[in-house]
Amino acid sequence: MVGVDGLRAHLLGARLAGVVATSREASLRRYRAFAARDPRVLMGVDPQGDWGVSDLVALMAEKCGVSADPRCTSGHDVIDPERTVRALDAFAERVGAAARRRAPVLIGTGHPHRLLGFYAALADALSAAGCAVLTPAQGRCVDITTRFGLRTYNLDYVRGVAFVREPAGERPGCATGAHSHSPLPVRTALAGAAEAGGVLPELVVGDHGWVCGAGQLGFEAIGLADTDDPALFVGQAEGVVSVVVPLDDGVRADYYLPLTRYVLNRACLSQ
């Protein structure tokens, strides 16, 4: 069992919080792109407010603990571990509530190389609690515009967790899927679930476009986000996203395992 003190120490030691690898320069580039309404950075959120760069810096300082000083333009970002712990508690409460009412859930990630294990453990526990872990539209093609142009991916699932992968033969060895910010995979999955009167999720869990895209469509959505992913925090501020956990989303996959144990314990779910 992982307690609060142990979790806080792990967050700092693994650089999931505290001084993280994400640079201030990278975050500011994303804030500028978000302010310019770049769809690649919006991740499916349709902001109602007029979010300028200074507004985003202030929001991320409040939600993550990054520097609120606009003169800070270089170095590494900092995430306040207390904010991460509080958000994980809220995240666990939503997961536990879904388990208690045996709600159907959809889980997806744009970071399959790093976060698949974290989400798969949640899927296993929710399934054991009687929740239907949905896997709609498996194998369906999703056309996503990337910096390299329009590319076609396939929607896939491993242990109940959705992600996109390039078609067989395109990128040999890409077994764990592709990194993606797009909301199109979750829209494809939800459309597939709705076909022929299928079951729709009562909770969507994930990151990037999975959370923003689902939340924008009115589904309860919770997830994880780094300091250079302002879309999820704007979605939370505007009531589109329910819970966002600030942390570095690009560290080693096994570093997320203590977070899994903490969330399952707080949600009163078996592991």
TrEMBL record:
InterPro entries: Phosphatase_SCO2771
Official protein name in the record: Phosphatase
Organism: Streptomyces actuosus
